[in-house]
Amino acid sequence: MVSGKYSALSGMVSRDQAMGNIAANLANVSTTGFKKDRVSFAAMLRGAKQADETRGINYARIRAINADFSQGAIQVTDRPLDVAIDGEGFLKVRKNNEIFYTRAGRLALDGNGMVQTEDGFTVLGAGDAPLQIDTTQGKDIVIAETGEIAVNGTPSGGRLQVYGIDDPKKLVKVGQSLYKLPEGNDQPLADFRVIQGGLETSNVNMMEEMTAMIAAQRIFEAHAKTLESYSKLGDKQDELGSLG
């Protein structure tokens, strides 16, 4: 009976964690470049691991939470310094000598023509060099699908670069649609497509997440009722044990 109580409790804990993950996804449904997280579950059902590590109790647990890097919809903004990556890859940005990766392409220029994200991170172009656009001769900025930048019809010498990651699962979310790569490598992609005047929206599907939330809530409640039933049975067992 005790093992059943622990199994039900572990089920409640894992579903509570899942609901927290879903809530975080829903909170970022309007965040540019946001990638939803997916939860995968695991259970210790049999074998030496269950016998040795859980003493025969079948624990349910979250095995992993991984970002889903599927493409989000592209929203047309017609703003020259808004860019969306169509396909795989990330923009590589830097702040305080730290490197980050993002798909949030709402960019801006500082007073020296350096290209930055809206949060002030410096965008790195080809060769990991800070990307700079010379607008002294005009303000008509055109970013080609291949990343080349022209101002008033004249090539600026700058190129927006998209970087690939060997294993995207190694990317760690740090907020603001930014990722760090504690281990692994990036590489500049030779073939990519960027869309000027557009932004990639969050890939969170609100209806899908709401459905998942309802399902997780129902499973949580089922585990809670099971735990309550075990508690009642335990009380009855104690009463029977005290007779005579």
Helix amount, in percent? 25-40%
Dominant shape = elongated
- Helices and strands, in order, run as HEHEEEEEEEEEEEEEEEEEH
Query: What's the end-to-end separation, in Å?
Result: 23 Å
Number of domains: 2
- What is the radius of gyration computed over CA atoms, rounded to a whole number of angstroms? 25 Å
Mean pLDDT: 86
Low-confidence stretches: none
State the strand order across the main sheet: 9-5-6-15-14
Please give the count of helices. Answer: 3
Q: What share of residues are in beta strands?
A: 25-35%
Task: State the secondary-structure class.
Answer: alpha+beta
Tell me about the biggest sheet? 5 strands, antiparallel
Question: How many runs of DSSP E, i.e. beta strands?
Answer: 18
Explain what you see:
- The protein has three helices and 18 strands.
- The chain has 244 residues and is α+β, with helices and mostly antiparallel strands.
- It folds into two domains: 2-69 and 204-241, no CATH class; 74-200, no CATH class.
- A five-stranded antiparallel sheet has the order 9-5-6-15-14, with no helix packed on it. A three-stranded antiparallel sheet has the order 10-11-12, with no helix packed on it.
- It is elongated.
- The mean pLDDT is 86.
Which features would summarize this protein structure in a list?
244 residues; alpha+beta; 2 domains; 5-stranded antiparallel β-sheet; 3-stranded antiparallel β-sheet; 3 helices; 18 strands
Describe, in short, the structure shown:
The chain is an alpha+beta fold.
Describe the secondary-structure layout:
Blueprint lengths: L1 H26 L9 E7 L3 H7 L6 E8 L6 E3 L6 E3 L5 E5 L2 E5 L4 E3 L5 E3 L4 E2 L17 E3 L4 E4 L2 E6 L3 E3 L6 E4 L2 E3 L5 E3 L5 E3 L1 E3 L5 H36 L3
